[in-house]
Amino acid sequence: MKKIQMVDLKGQYNEIKEVVNSSINEVIETTTFINGPKVHQFQKNLEDYLGVKHVIPCANGTDALQIAMMGLGLKPGDEVITADFTFAATVEVIALLNLTPVLVDVDPETFNIDIEAVKKAITPNTKAIVPVHLFGQCANMEALMEIAKAHNLYVIEDNAQAIGATYTFKDGTKAKAGTIGHVASTSFFPSKNLGAYGDGGAIFTNDDNLAHTIRGIVNHGMYERYHHDVVGVNSRLDSIQAAVLDAKLPYLDRYNKSRQHSARRYSQAFEPIDNIITPVTINNCEGICETCDCHVFHQYTLKIKGVDRDALVAHLQANNIPCGVYYPIPLHRQKAYADTRYNEADFTVTNQLIKEVISLPMHTELEPDQIDFITKTLIDFVKIN
Ligand SMILES: *Cc1c(COP(=O)(O)O)cnc(C)c1O
Fold first, then answer.
1. How far is the CA of 61 from the centre of ligand 1 (A)?
2. Catalytic residue among 38, 176, 192, 303
3. Which CATH superfamily is domain 252-384 in?
4. 290 falls in which pLDDT band (50, 70, 90)?
5. Average predicted confidence (pLDDT) for the chain
6. Cβ(131) to ligand 1 under 6 A?
7. How confident is the model at residue 235 (pLDDT cuts 50, 70, 90)?
8. Cα–Cα separations (whole angstroms), residue 317 to 121, 208, 298, 312
């Protein structure tokens, strides 16, 4: 058995070495390092893949979120509702722009923003909702878009973890994650489902005016050379990263399928064990990702009941099985984001999840014998503890 890794970027690279190298070489040979043709080519190819009118590449996923909020013209004091159980980048940019973050609890099954909690958090100052499609599965976009419409709010999808996922509406219509809200952000951090070999990110929207505004914001607020109409930022996807991404994009569906296969093998092994709760896929699809891409498993995250999760983490590590706890501390209890407005009773799900979740190795090169070793090691521990 090969050494188990949380993410195997080298194994993936070995399989596509020639295409990636030649794509990178084109950039070097033409010295089109900034805003070169590769950036434009990748942008177009991603627009086609997603079925979205505009992709605006930028430097990373955190910038993408910030720029999306700047593009919408959100003003200091505007309230932005987002999930308590997510990576800090989401709330960080809200705070950076002097908007008011309003953290709410999540759904215990999908780990995604809780619809009732969103409704409860709306005030006359609410301007936007930021659902995070956590671990590879879309939040309940249908309900969120209805709420947004009723209250005149923007929906900004944080799609850093679910690129390539498909969302199915109740009437059977399908849309790619990140193309449903008013605007979306994604990250091409190397370990994401579509990862660069460095930093990268992008903003997606179907709104022509918003796309125009955002194209200026990423480029120092310039719409005409040396005319600075708004305060912008410098946030570019560099051409070498675009070259890597453009070479990898044709493999994205295959990569996501491979993650789904691994997830299914994990879940089948864990299914009989009561203390291990496997990831739940909730969408209006057939449910098990056999025929659709409703969950693309950026992470494969279990809930462990009645067993000391931290002891389990130590046991896996002792057996050379890497694992992760995403996320160990709720955002409402982080020093930077704690606020007297928050009431612990409003975060019962997140407060429980942080004690129970564990994410297992998940990447495109996982092999069946590795998964079987992981499931056996984990189940043996849970049975005797
Ligand atoms: C990775 C991630 C980000 C940030 O992406 P960077 O490219 O690292 O800036 C934002 N939100 C979520 C949910 C993420 O997982």
1. 5
2. 192
3. Aspartate Aminotransferase, domain 1 (3.90.1150.10)
4. low
5. 96
6. no
7. very high
8. 40, 49, 21, 9
CATH topology of 16-250 equal to that of 252-384?
no
Class of domain 16-250: alpha beta
Please give the Cα distance from 102 to 80 (Å, whole number). Answer: 6
Taking the C-alpha atoms of residue 320 and residue 212, their distance in angstroms, rounded to an integer, is: 49
Domain map (residue ranges) of the chain: 16-250, 252-384
Structure tokens at 361: 């190795």
Residue 286, pLDDT score? 54
335 is catalytic: no
Q: Say yes or no: CB of residue 327 within 6 Å of ligand 1.
A: no
